[in-house]
Amino acid sequence: MRPGIRERIHNFLADRGLRKTMQREAIIEAAFSTTEHYTAEELLRMSRKIDHSVSRATVYRTLPLLVECGVLKEMDFGKDYKFYDPNYLEHPHHNHLICVDCNRIVEFEDQHIELLEECISKRLGFSPASKSLRIEANCDELRKRGVCKNRKPSRD
């Protein structure tokens, strides 16, 4: 786990009068033991590998706390469920490319995109407050070869 995250979460919970429980600790450990994006159900499975007693309800109550604390970013990629991005603190300006064929999420940063967003905003008389760039794309490897090594089971 990245330095300072656990302490930040513990301080946040204490400020709200919430207890530090074994289930929450397992969820926190699972949430920040990966750089991959995940859904609440995927976080539940990862958490149960650490502590089999983690409940679905505790995961669903803890996720909004982690988002409110500012250590996790909730992402809407146009599905019936949200994704959670554990890389937000280290790379707050990254963007996402989502492969509609293999369900892979690729993070990227590009100074040219940031400059373009700034220029467009200024030209239209605005100052950017936040941004979110999501590119949905088709997998070239799947199109060319009929198979993609990155293809994961569908989350739908």
Automatic annotation (TrEMBL):
Pfam families recorded: FUR
TM spans (from-to): none
Subcellular locations according to the entry: Cytoplasm
CDD domains documented for this protein: Fur_like (cd07153)
Positions contributing to Fe cation binding: 93, 114
Cofactor binding, per record: Binds 1 zinc ion per subunit. Binds 1 Mn(2+) or Fe(2+) ion per subunit.
Protein's recorded name: Ferric uptake regulation protein
Organism for this UniProt entry: Chthoniobacter flavus Ellin428
